[in-house]
């Protein structure tokens, strides 16, 4: 993250992240490297119970739309774990630029805008003609509902899950619950 910028970090908040390969080198310029990144991203998602709403792997950078990790630390810890995992498996040092860009997503509109941006990034860069042609992104999940290597959850399913959890807590902790006085 750039120095001197304050970011709000709260459970449930989404962030648009960008991090680049060292000196913008195209370290993800082949299928094997992109596949490795997707595997590392899924392992990091599982370890931190990280909700991933969108991602794209570009030849020299990565975009993610993620929330705050539910366990094992902060957003910075999850990013550090992901970057370290990729670095060790690629056996190339340095692999990443030291910092990353973090933009808070407070509204559904901004969340959707960033998803559109990252899914169109391979098209804008001339790598493919249509977003669905780029294999290393969450576009297919969002357009078909089929999960890939990385488990992706939409904004709407996240909001609905959060609502159900809140209602469940009210039913088990509020009036009418066992032991409630």
TrEMBL record:
PROSITE patterns recorded: PROKAR_LIPOPROTEIN
GO molecular-function terms, A-Z: sequence-specific DNA binding; transposase activity
Annotated ranges, domain Transposase IS200-like: 10-121
SUPFAM superfamilies for the chain: Transposase IS200-like
UniProt record, GO biological process: DNA transposition
Name recorded for this polypeptide: Transposase
